[in-house]
Amino acid sequence: EAGASVLLLRACLALLALPIYLLSFLGMWEPFCRKVFFPFILDKICTVHDKKSKKHKQELFCNLLDFRGPSGELKVLEIGTGSGSNFQFYPPGCRVTCTDINPNFQQSLSKNMKKNQHLHYERFLVAAAEDLHQVPSGSVDAVVCTLVLCSVHSVSSTLKEVLRVLRPGGAFYFLEHVAAEHSSWKYFWQQVCYPTWKLVFAGCCLTRELWKNLEEAKFSELKIKHISVALPWTPIEPHIVGCGVK
Predict the structure, then answer these.
(1) Which class for 243: exposed (0-12), middle (13-18), buried (19 or more C-beta within 10 A)?
(2) Does domain 1-245 have CATH number 3.40.50.150?
(3) Would you list the domain boundaries of the chain?
């Protein structure tokens, strides 16, 4: 019953997004999406998301300094930095290395760097989350990842890389949207929107149960909290937030 309704509504949604499906078929949507549409729309979504998630992020990052290395410095690696909306939450003087698979966020990224001159920006790497070979093993005190695990090709490979680059005792901070409760309407709509949403928003998957991947990764300590961050008219309300220690 639900299966048939999902398929029917998916087809309706695909009809509404037909021009995008056609551009994708012609190989024209992905480059446009990566270069123009996604950086633009993400900037807009992040502005709203930042307001709604601000207190969660303040709580999440408040103990970052506890993970300073033996030198007394805090080295942070951010995966999927995008426009740099997390910079405001990092403590003064910490050294930040930014990575993103998409190099087209320059405009909003440099705006956020100018706004947050309390940080040292080490370097910017164009890299997939699953392959951070440019970052030496055990070289960072904290890894940060917000709204990124929804669109990586492999969550488990990404978490392996996170654990590799962290020094022993280092921490992984995350805030991600996840699948809703299976019996809920929210989950029903996530399933309906799934294919079109994934195409339009550069590979973003709505129904990942990321807490399971985190529990399977080899963290020595792991705190996960299920929260709700309501973005009007979007199917991405259920989130998880937390921290894992290597």
Answers:
(1) buried
(2) yes
(3) 1-245
Q: In what order do the strands lie in the sheet with 75-79?
A: 120-126, 95-100, 75-79, 140-146, 166-177, 238-245, 221-228
What angle, 0 to 180 degrees and rounded to 10, lies between the N-to-C axes of helices 2-16 and 185-200? 30
Rg (CA), the chain: 18
Residue 227 parent element (H or E): strand 221-228
User: Which segments of 59-139 are extended strands (E)?
Assistant: 75-79, 95-100, 120-126
What is the full per-residue pLDDT of the chain (246 aa) written as tens digits? 568 999 999 999 999 999 999 999 999 999 999 999 988 888 888 788 889 999 999 999 999 999 998 889 999 999 999 989 999 999 999 999 999 998 888 888 889 999 999 999 999 999 999 999 999 999 999 999 999 999 999 999 999 999 999 999 999 999 999 999 999 999 999 999 999 999 999 999 999 999 999 999 999 999 999 999 988 888 999 999 999 999
Spell out the residues 6+ positions from residue 41 whose beta carbon is closer than 8 angstroms to its own. 201
